């Protein structure tokens, strides 16, 4: 094992500077769903790469630009880091203790929108590179960064970008944008992501809202049309009723179930953390709950909007209504196929008036748990964390790992600094500084070991 | 017929002053649903009454104050005017051509929130009184005004107020807050109002919104719970599925149908005005459509809100969801009974988690079309309008006429200055100045004739 004392000392000593760099990045809003601050944030990331001697390009797509950076190292091997500079919308603003784009440090945590997802992962990895360059004057292997700006809006243009830039992105392995410890402080290795198909369903039946005393009796009501259409998608039994929806579902294997079985129970943790009153489908915990969380596709209403939503009563028949709906997919479901089946289903049910706006999607993808790269990531974490890294074959969230796994042919492993109360996508998003330092130490070790 | 030339001349000459008084009243926001400006507006109305020699009291209720004014006249008979000083919320603001609380005069119309519903009705009636006082130095009969501040939020406290003040409100007849001409310029006499039962349904299943990749698989979704609960209330056949909902419905009589039959067809007018694509229940027009509009109770979703509603996608499982729902009632349905049946139905369907907040209601009530007071109102309109007033036995809208008809025992007739494009409850609410003058002329004649 090489000596990391110099590297660790550098990281301990320079934490304040790295957190300052992170704070500057968080203070730059970069909300892909709302098209806010994306170019500015991409330019900041490119500058940060160049400051480490990387070549950095800001590459246009049909959406937000992608930042690509590269620096050669000692060995021929190439590690690709996938990150994103965009963040979720900060709403509801009133639930933040401090403003989302004014990073705030308190009790060992840094708060701000995007601080965990995903800006700290960018800066902590650059921090590890700083330490390696300080110690050795060069990197142990080639390092590439691909930092996109549409991860929070389903990475709509990334798949095409990757297919068009396969040579440039050529690598031997990939470290994913996120990772972290669970509630026991055990670092987790997530080896698969569900796919996603995100749509907005909308109905418009009148030219303007009408007094409900008139319109309520004889005009079609957009809100009712939407409610009725939605109620045909899924019933209280949680079964999705779109014909053919489950056709391509590949069932988890016995090995998947064994891996899930080895992981701790999550029921009490979720009940406490999210105020869960009960789980769906009469689930109470154990492996069944864990399996349901990741190996079953979903249909989630993420938002509803129609008519009057203020205090008290307003007697109005809404002209328009819409819903945001997110399907989480498992192998081998495909988002385009789901949209097609959804359209056919709505038409068959008499809801030709319900428009579908496809807001993005990607299929699920998984990495083999026995890949040597996965082992390297696990082993290099050992002297950093209190507990050994545990392998999770698949998680419930989504991300664009499909083109990395299937187009670039890379093993994709996760490592990161998230923690169970990190509040990604929610108010008071935060990171723990102790985990920030640990992740930088882990990445420095990984780069050395991987280079061998 | 007495000579009205002096009165008409006064009204012609003093229009600008009366419109200025109206504009001042409209510029004072008084949004009952949001609790904005109610006391200020009540004080303005009381001052306007006092300026005509009325006693005026601002009487507290558990909600917005009621303004009561009275002035004795020559005969012993007493006419009661019912009006309201509150207005609907102005949202959506972006659809107004000029700001809702900055009255704007263009092309013979005055625009502003509440200008039609109901502030112009207050000032045009006071304008008629000004003309009578100018001509005769006294009023032909006793006149009372009751001007409430919660009409737009279902007059929650008015029924109790009327029962507690029956002696004070004693009168021989009542002129209702609204009225007007239809699209043919025919003045309409509306003799019945549907009842209303307005509720907010809400669901909360988690302590905060959760990432949909996690929560969507295993947590209860408040938006889904709400959609499923709503879908049990009414289906695409428009039949309300709450057991017992139709039990107390009194069917319209043959005479009702004949009166509706005599009224013009509304189908083309509605299609044009509101962009209606098709009517519900395969209705196409004629008497069936007109009957459906007023003699059938409804269940209307007025608003839906849950989770993320901004642009693009946000992958979140909403912790809360709510809907505003308005039931229009016909004789002899009672709002409290409907709430009780709704609760029982939701419980029976497994939606104990859907909370009901009763935001107000009142039963339907009707006045006999053969009442002599109705005849007086119709006859005194004859020399003002191009066409004879037509009788509508019942309309689709609601108002608190029940305590006037059933507690005070009054015939309640309508007369007013609305027109089909008046946009009550919608952006760009407006009145036509020609109809404002006509209504004042009508009311001056009515007071004289009624006094005999």
Catalogue the unreliable spans of chain A. Answer: none
Distance between the termini of chain A: 11 Å
Strand content of chain A: 15-25%
How are strands sequenced across the largest beta sheet of chain A?
A: 1-2-6-3-7-19
The H-level CATH homologous superfamily of the largest domain in chain A, spelled out, is Zn peptidases
Shape descriptor of chain A reads globular
Give the radius of gyration of chain A. 23 Å
Q: Greatest contact pair? A: A-B, 94 and 94 residues
Please characterize this protein's 3D structure:
2 copies of one chain form a homodimer. Chain A has 452 residues and is α/β, with parallel strands linked by helices. Chain A folds into 2 domains: 5-191 and 367-451, Zn peptidases (Aminopeptidase); 195-362, 2-Layer Sandwich (Alpha-Beta Plaits). Chain A is built from 14 helices and 20 strands. The first copy, chain A, has helices at residues 5-13, 15-27, 38-50, 115-136, 158-164, 212-218, 222-231, 254-261, 267-274, 286-295, 335-348, 372-380, 401-407, 433-451; strands at residues 55-59, 66-71, 78-84, 104-106, 109-111, 142-148, 173-175, 180-181, 187-190, 192-204, 210-211, 298-307, 316-317, 320-329, 355-362, 365-366, 390-392, 395-398, 412-413, 430-432. A 6-stranded mixed sheet of chain A has the order 1-2-6-3-7-19. In chain A, β8 (180-181) and β9 (187-190) form a beta hairpin. The radius of gyration of chain A is 23 Å and the shape is globular. The N and C termini of chain A lie close together (11 Å). The relative contact order of chain A is 0.19. Chains A and B meet through β10, β11, α6, α7 and α10 of A and β10, β11, α6, α7 and α10 of B. β12 (298-307) of chain A pairs antiparallel with β12 of chain B, so a sheet runs across the interface.
